[in-house]
Design brief:
The chain is an alpha/beta fold. The protein has helices at residues 2-6, 27-41, 52-60, 72-80, 113-122, 136-148, 151-154, 167-171, 218-229, 234-239; strands at residues 17-23, 44-50, 67-70, 90-95, 97-102, 126-129, 158-161, 177-181, 191-196, 205-211, 243-244. The protein has a 6-stranded mixed sheet with strand order 2-1-3-10-4-11. A 5-stranded mixed sheet has the order 7-6-8-5-9.
């Protein structure tokens, strides 16, 4: 048990609410680990997710929280701005980008860069996160289209998601093929993960947790961060399409 290894012990009489702001890619890990944390500590997790860019703006704008889970750079920038406690950053997980189609649909060949390009060009519509929303995968995919020289062909048929799961557009039939972080494909029913992008164009995003500089629940928040990085959490990360941060 993770909790036993952490020495969380029995629920505390002075249980508190711990507000966690998390990027969408880490949401499923949070949902899997939070029940044990709440059971063992008596504390309650208040979870809110957004794109990495959206969270950065909200925290910079003064939103209160106890723990933030974003990219390491965002955590460092917020620490420099006095929003995250200095020295509290812990890298917790990493995830790559994958391709998704509707369940039962023919899986396109994406084994090489050229095959991936052909799959994008052949699809009637391609879904990914709107880069303007600040989602890291959407920003990467949009730039990747330019690198591959197919942006002009793909953008007119793109179905952009403002946040949440790109795979929802695939499951509903609004788009034929989607490109998103693997941990945000796996929770969606009615779709199939084709596989990760070819290694030559893969983009791995690391996520880090940081403690609010003004949290009133430091011990409870630190216990949660410690739980994420414990070796026993590895199985949960992998089950949700992520890997422990190196």
């Amino acid at each position: 048990m993770i909790a036993a290894c952490l020495g969380l012990g029995m629920p505390q009489a002075n249980a508190v609410e711990v507000k966690v702001l998390t990027a969408g890619a880490f949401k499923q890990v949070m949902l899997a680990l939070v029940p044990e944390y709440e059971k063992e500590t008596g504390n309650k997790i208040v979870l809110d997710n957004d794109t990495a860019g959206g969270l950065l703006k909200r925290i910079e704008g003064g939103e209160t929280f106890d723990v933030a889970i974003i990219t390491p750079k965002a955590i460092d920038d917020l620490a420099a701005a006095g929003k995250i406690a200095q020295g509290s950053r812990v890298n917790v997980a990493s995830v790559g980008v994958g391709v998704v189609v509707k369940e039962g649909a023919l899986k396109p060949d994406i084994s090489t860069v050229e095959a991936f390009k052909k799959a994008l060009l052949a699809a009637k519509s391609v879904a990914y996160i709107d880069p303007a929303s600040g989602g890291s995968s959407g920003i990467y995919v949009d730039k990747l289209l330019e690198r591959l020289g197919i942006a002009d062909q793909i953008r007119p048929k793109a179905k952009l998601k403002q946040g949440g799961y790109v795979a929802d557009l695939i499951a509903s039939g609004q788009a034929e093929l989607g490109v998103h972080q693997i941990s945000e494909i796996m929770p969606v029913k009615g779709v199939t993960l084709v596989g990760p992008l070819p290694k030559e164009i893969q983009n791995t995003t690391t996520y880090a947790a940081g403690l609010s500089a003004t949290t009133q629940h430091k011990d409870a928040a630190q216990a949660l961060i410690k739980m994420f990085s414990h070796p026993d959490a590895t199985a949960t990360l992998k089950a949700k399409g992520m890997d422990p941060a190196s």
